[in-house]
């Protein structure tokens, strides 16, 4: 299976770098966003969307992640066959 490489920050589109404040991001976020950087228009839309979502958010940052993973685990478990 072909993998999409994560571009190093110095190879990102200039506008994307500024929009994402790439030089201040932790390495793990640079790596994740670097995959999107292969398609700069998609990456810019993603950064704008996630920024807008986080601005109006009233829950603690980690709470939605916990709920997502809890729900994923609950719904992903296979149903048991009746005896």
DSSP helical segment count: 4
Residues in helices, as a percent range: 55-70%
Broad shape: globular
The rounded Rg comes to 17 Å
Mean pLDDT: 79
**How big a fraction of the residues is strand?**
under 5%
Between the first and last Cα atoms, what is the distance in angstroms?
A: 40 Å
> Domains counted in the coordinates: how many?
1
User: What is the number of E strands?
Assistant: 0
> In terms of per-residue confidence, which ranges show pLDDT below 50 for 5 or more consecutive residues?
71-77
Give the SSE string: HHHH
Label the structural class. mainly alpha
Tell me the major beta sheet: none
Describe the SSE topology.
Layout: H1 14-20, H2 27-36, H3 40-55, H4 62-76
Helix pairs in contact: 1-3
Summed up:
The chain has 83 residues and is mainly α.
Structural features, described:
The structure is a single chain. By secondary structure, the chain is mainly alpha-helical. It has one domain (9-76). The chain has four helices and no strands. Residues 71-77 have low confidence and may be disordered.
Key phrases:
83 residues, mainly alpha, 4 helices
